[in-house]
Amino acid sequence: MTRSTERIDAEPTERTPTAVSQPRLGIIGWGRWAWRQLTSMRTALFLLLLLALAAVPGSLFPQRTADPNGVVQYFKENPGLAPILDKFQVFDAYTSFWFSSIYLLLFLSLIGCVLPRTVHHLRAIRTAPPRTPARLSRMPGFIALDLNDDGKATGSAVTAPDAIAAARSLLRRRGYRVAVFEGAQTKDSTELSVSAERGYLREAGNLVFHIALLGILITVGIGGGFGYNGNRVVVEGQTMINTLAAYDSFNPGRFFTDAELSPYSIRLDKLAVTYETQNKDARGLPTDYTATVTARTQDSRNGYKTTIKVNEPLNIGGTNVYLLGNGYAPHITVRDPRGHVVFSDFVPFLPQDSNLTSLGVVKVPDGLQQQIGMMGFFYPTKAVAQNGAFYSSYPDVKAPMLTLNVYSGDLGLNGGVPRSVYTLDTSRLKQLTGVSTGVKSIELAPGYSQQLPDGLGSVSLDGVSRFASFQVNHDPAQGWVLLFTVCAFGGLLTSLFVPRRRLWVKAIGQASGPLRLEYAGLARGDDPQLETVVETLAQNHIEALRNRDPGASDGRHPEEDTRRTT
Amino acid sequence: MTDTLSQLSLLLIIGAIAIYAAAFVTFALDLARRRSPSVTVISAVARHAEAETPTSTTRLANAIGNTGVLVRQSTTSADAHEERPQTSGVLRAAFVLTLVGFGLHLGADVLRGIAAGRVPWANMWEFSMTGTLIIVGVFLLVTLKYDLRFLGTFVIGLVLLLLGIASARYYVPVAPLPPALQSYWLVIHVIVAIIATGFFALGFALSGVQLLKARRERQETDARPPQFAFLRTLPKWAALENLAYRMNIVGFILWTFTLIAGAIWAEKAWGRYWGWDTKEVWTFIIWVLYAGYIHARATRGWRGSRSAWLALIGFSAVMFNFGIVNVFFKGLHSYSGL
Ligand code: HEM
Fold first, then answer.
1. Given this model, what pLDDT does residue A514 score?
2. Best of A105, A206, A484 to mutate for ligand 1, by most ligand atoms within 8 A of CB?
3. pLDDT tens, residue by residue, B123-148
4. CA–CA separation, A318 vs A473, rounded Å?
5. Mutate which of B288, B312, B333 to disrupt the A interface (most A C-beta within 10 Å)?
6. Which helix (H) or strand (E) holds A259?
7. pLDDT one-digit tens code per residue, A550-564
8. Domain range annotation of chain B
9. Concatenated DSSP letters of A267-330
10. Alpha-helical regions (H) of A22-128
11. Which pairs count as long-range contacts for A530-533, CB under 8 Å and 24+ apart, including other chains?
12. Which has the higher per-residue pLDDT, B33 or A89?
């Protein structure tokens, strides 16, 4: 109720005494009052602006979902402030209680607003346009003229019913809903008018838009609840299987069950990367990544070859597989002093810069006298800075080099605490090589091996492959989200650009004197064309009257659907 | 080849900046001249031109012919200028300068595109160049329908400011597209965002002038000394507000499309259609702000100056999103090329 009177183009209605003037409210009264406040246009506006404001902090502070390392970093840099901010869920801003409450209130308000409007609109569609205002001269685009056609041209003088019949058919032909009304009748004047309305689609579009927003919210929620996404690093030649255990990281929705993981596997045959070589301003910029893979599903057990590229995910088993990252995985072998292999594998190194200087960790828990860990850098194209430090000068493998610092002691693998394969906890390790120890770090080119310090054994770099970092995504409601989005967009277009307006033509027949014709309109919502439309209507109406063919005024007598005004 | 073309593009853009600067001064001169009442007299040329094109009123009168007598026709108070806008030679000169500047600007943009072998909107420099081009383009386009030349000072001023900042801070040589940007969504998503920005810019200028004008009208009704004499010749605030609204809703529709297209692209490129990445957040904030503006305009007590302030805030957010978020905020959209 509040809504319709608060809208700027609302029809003035007599308001029933509001709650304010009632002495006692009671619980129901208060509830009704609260609901009316919540669903008022002003509240909707306030909540919208609040939503915009509440979205800001999440862009200023790192978010756990998008940038977990940033959060860790923030905690390190602001040890005093971070925990307080964390209490207010600043690092999970978009799932925080304050953000959620704003949008939930907004959508509650939306429901409270759209439901009555829908009912109102459905009723409006079925009822005839409201009666012509008594004084059209107050309305926009008002035109009045006296018709002094004496009937010489057409054989009979134009009467009020003639004029109204012509106006009625003119308006109907233009898609207006019309109703004819009889106005004040006196001895020497009769008043007839046609009231026309068009643009019901405008309000319909508006309702579709708002309802579709609700649809988007709900389907996004469902998708998040039942979907999952996971990441997996795959080295060339390796296969990933779509099982929970195969993922490096996995984010299930609240209602996820294992059964949703459809069985398939993907082998990364090759990851081809092209770099810019011609443009001297952009040398070494990657211009293409193509992962060639062999995919196997239950339907195609022998597998089929296909490719995954950035912007071109692979659709398989109800999931999408994206190529999100890449890097190098040196193949490293560690032998004990007698030459027995104790470790041999591809170790993905994480890129640190655009020339793919990469950081990695090797952990050898068994087979040597002590547990050892090695941490170091891989440079695809080694270069030496003036201070003697290595760096990579080009992202492709031109002059590869691996450096490793060796640590021995307790790797902390037996504590039951999950450890990332990309980090080395050095708190219980002793550094054996590197600057502080006086022992030179291990430096290896492919095909070479070197002794570990303290006679622990040897380490060799056998070769280098690329790895791809894949993300697997499953969102069962995505199609629905898209559908509602399209509805919202369509509704928005209709609601902003379909003009909704009323037009009136009034004919006042005077016993003595000319026939007075009046035209006016009223826009409901923004309507830049209104005045022009009224003028054109007047113009066409007069032309129609002048060229009229008596008796051919669409076959119906205007009295048929005339309503008497009181 | 690439080098020559991109250098030529740079030369053209410098030329465009020079011409825009001249246009800006001329537009400002026109506003200043509007103070003196002597030039508000309609020039003979303009009056002549008016007689040539039948207005709707004369058309209506013709239709009535000798059949009837027009008793009354209300003219919209909202659309009428307070005083007839003069078509001064200065204003025309400013407009011609803008057209010339636009020509050079367009040339610069196209050459940059050819040099890069792709659409010229893939890094901050190119966003700035194409963005300002579109702002001027939208201004010229809308002027075909509504005479908004009085906004020239504001629009060209804004464009000069942006181009100045861009050439000082954002210039980067041509570089190939990184794989993440190799998508037709780059073409669609970004250009629609830029066009939306063009409409928002006009809406911003109109809302700004509207606020000034509303203040002046209040000063006049309160019989206080009115400020900014040039405002006298501009449309009434209600007419300005209608125009601003029209610009802003076109911008809003395009922005909505940008948001949707961005989500579809994000789904293709990053595996999720929405992830509250900083750029996504700001696109959303802008969208909500303009939705707020539309609501405000439909709410009793908010139409007029209050909703105009929201339009100003909305456009500030657009500029913030472009100039600050792109460059200084960390996120997946790190394509500024800086
Ligand atoms: C989820 C938050 C909302 C968003 C994003 C939103 C957005 C919009 C947009 C973009 C429009 C203009 C397009 C159109 O007319 O269809 C609009 C119009 C409108 N909205 Fe909302 N809206 C929201 C919530 C609400 C709520 C809660 C109410 C009721 C209290 C409401 C009432 C209206 C009305 C009455 C209009 C028509 C304005 C006019 O006639 O110009 N909206 N809304």
1. 82
2. A206
3. 889 999 999 999 999 999 999 888 88
4. 9
5. B288
6. none
7. 544 444 444 444 444
8. 1-36+88-176, 185-338
9. EEEEEEEEE--S-TTSTT-EEEEEEEEEEEESS-TT-EEEEEETTBPEEETTEEEEEEEEEEEE
10. 26-38, 41-54, 57-60, 68-77, 81-87, 97-126
11. A530/A140, A530/A141, A530/A499, A530/A501, A531/A140, A531/A141, A531/B76, A531/B79, A532/B56, A533/A141, A533/A501, A533/A503
12. A89
Query: In the CATH scheme, what architecture does the domain A136-198+500-565 have?
Result: 2-Layer Sandwich (3.30)
Pick from A46, A111, A210 the residue to mutate for probing ligand 1's pocket: most ligand atoms within 8 Å of its CB: A210
pLDDT of residue B78: 40
Residue A148's pLDDT band (boundaries 50, 70, 90)? confident
Tell me the average pLDDT across A402-420: 80
User: Can you tell me the ipTM of this complex?
Assistant: 0.87
Query: Which residues of chain A neighbour B259 with C-beta distances below 8 Å?
Result: none
Structure token digits, residue B338: 């800086």
Distance A210 CA to ligand 1 centre (A): 7
Strand boundaries in A424-500, DSSP class E? 429-431, 442-444, 449-451, 458-474
Give dist(CA B244, CA B237) in Å, integer: 10
pLDDT in tens, A17-71: 444 445 566 888 888 888 888 888 899 999 999 999 999 999 999 998 877 888 9
**Residue A237, CA distances (Å) to A266, A269, A292, A293, A329 in order:** 10, 5, 10, 9, 12
Global pTM value? 0.86
Residue the block writes with tokens 């790895």: A467
pLDDT in tens, A325-354: 899 999 999 999 998 999 999 999 999 888
Where exactly are the structural domains of chain A? Answer: 27-126, 136-198+500-565, 204-226+476-491, 228-474
Nearest 10 degrees: CA dihedral of A424, A427, A430, A436? Answer: 90
